[in-house]
Amino acid sequence: MAGVYCPTCEAGVEASAKFCLSCGHNFTQQGPITATGHDLNQLKDVIRLREDLSMAEKFDMIAKIEDGADPIALGIAAAADDDDLTADTDVLMQTAEDVAPSLQSATWDHEAANAAIELAISDTKLLDLKNSGAFEKQNETFAEAMNLGRKATLEILKVSQGLVIPADDGLQSVPILQPPNKSFCPKCGSDIHGNTMRQWKKWSDATDEGLSIQLEAAMRTSLMHLASSYRDKIQDLQDQLADAKKAAEQAKKQGAQAKPKQAKEDKSEKDTAKKSEKKVAATKATPAKAKSAPAKKKSGGLFGAKKPKKTYEGEPGGKAEWFLEEALDTVYDPHGTGKTVKAAMILARSSDGNVRVRDVIRTYAVEGEDGISELAWTSPLTKYLIEAYDAC
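Above: the chain sequence. Below: its structure as tokens.
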């Protein structure tokens, strides 16, 4: 026979022991329990109060219980109602396909996840990019990436719940969340583990939904940050490509114009020689006329042409991206060069990195002038950028 057990750690103990040698539990406060989960001291009290048994029978029955006899079979204790437990056990049996159903059916458009993302990126330029719709074209790519992330998460959940055998040596390090083999109430003998699992089943759907929201918010925020960094690099390459194409077109035009000009120059050399002889003779015969003043170039001001005015009429968060794409031609040109400022234009250089026009505009849109670095202020164009941005 198995004997009796400690109600705290469920280690096997002697019926006459005062303390548990494994955990130190005091048996004078709560006695040891039988294999069915009944308190040994309570069973002894029940046996002593029975009037249908002689004193010898009572001592014999107590000895049997201390040795591990089933008190239910002896008619001393009642069994727990196992009908509901059996039904719930069938419900609690899970397969690999039933793990986290809410996570498996997530469509990556939860409002709570979007709200969490906006709070996480509120102090960065990502919020302006999100509000301006810069990531809308990437939604399909984001969904594909998050589906792969969900698949990896489900594999770990299946291994942790013991539903599948680890397919790789790396997955063997995942802790297996297995319930205890035996857990019962020392008072009534009910299955604590079964009751706990029923309560867990009750809240498991809400837990899965919370997990899917967490994963969506985390993965989408990470993907937006990654997409933003590559977006800047792609913009730099596009600007360099546009400059290279423009330079190639100009070189091609100059090469095409070089041949006609050479022929004209050869012809004009002969004409100028004849005209110079006639002019010398004419100057001797007629008095010199006063030269007319050359016509002045029309300009809009002392430092170049006036810049056009534009007004932003979209959402507040999208002004920075709109300004970089549509309104850079409104920036004041102090030297009158007539060249339009570009978003990728470098304002200042340092060993830690370069400061570009788009960096100044995006930082100013979120943090104001206090957020602009000292390196950016070394360029006089930074002031004109801010003035043009405010004017829009």
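The beta strands are 4-5, 12-13, 346-348, 355-356.
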